[in-house]
Amino acid sequence: MPVMFRFRLVPCIATVLVMAIGIAAGQWQTRRAADKEAIALRLSERAAAPPLTIDARLFSADQVEYRSVSVSGEFLPNWPVYLDNRPYQGVAGFYVLMPFRIASSRMHVLIARGWVPRDPANRTRLPAIRTPAGMITVQGMARRNPGRLLQFGQQDALRPGAILQNLDVAGFAQASGLQMQPFLLEQSSPLPDGLKRDWPPPSTGIDKHRGYAFQWFALTAMAFIFFVVTGFRRGTR
């Protein structure tokens, strides 16, 4: 029996559309993986660079992101904010953020001081945080933001003591009226405050994008194979 292929216009158009979408999405994910590889390389290079001293000059986030930095000044304990849904070793808790006035200036930098457990009986009960008084020096890694979580609905207004899901430095500067550097510092230097400073490493998500690219290209191949196989089956019948 001769093998025949039966061409049908509608399935062909549908297959071409699916393949076009799959190829475009796969290429986009591939480009994202390449971009993240560049970020990972920059992260590695900057983490190995000598510590950068932050002073009253305005630094750009691009200039200092992922750099080890050092800053001298004093905390402003009347403006703490708490980032919710930040578990540590399976325990629910907050990231404690506080502005830090840079020595001999009116410039501030937002410090992610560390992690503290949440009250399991009352999530709105804020923990007592010991804050050193006077001039100190803080070291850590500069980050553009503290990481963003999926958020449903409108979060509370940004104010002293606010419990928030997400925060950006520009919004904090606007709400507090403080002159801020456009980045935050994840503190690594020890202080007698009881906070955990075991920060998760920055995630570039390279493997995730490669996995998504593989799925899209696999979908493209499956659409083509399905069109060809079903065409031969129709032709045989």
Give a quick set of tags describing it.
single chain, 237 residues, alpha/beta, five-stranded mixed barrel, 4 helices, 8 strands
Can you walk me through this structure?
This protein is an alpha/beta fold and about 240 residues long. It is built from four helices and eight strands. It folds into two domains: about 10-40 and about 205-235; about 65-185, no CATH class. It is about 35% helix and about 25% strand. A five-stranded mixed beta barrel has the order 2-4-5-8-6. β4 and β5 form a beta hairpin. α1 packs antiparallel against α4.
Q: What would you call the structural class?
A: alpha/beta
Largest sheet: 5 strands, mixed, barrel
- Strand count: 8
- In the sheet with the most strands, the strands line up as 2-4-5-8-6
SSE order, as H and E? HEHEEEEEEHEH
Unreliable spans are none
Mean pLDDT: 88
Number of helices: 4
Distance between the termini: 11 Å
Helix content: 25-40%
Rg over alpha carbons: 26 Å
Globally, the shape reads elongated
- Note the beta-strand portion: 15-25%
Q: Tell me the number of structural domains.
A: 2
Please outline what is shown here.
The chain has 237 residues and is α/β, with parallel strands linked by helices.
Write the layout of secondary structure elements.
Layout: H1 9-47, E1 52-54, H2 61-64, E2 68-75, E3 81-83, E4 93-102, E5 107-117, E6 136-143, E7 163-164, H3 169-176, E8 179-187, H4 206-236
Parallel strand pairs: 1-2, 3-7, 5-8
Antiparallel strand pairs: 2-4, 2-6, 3-4, 4-5, 6-8
Helix pairs in contact: 1-4
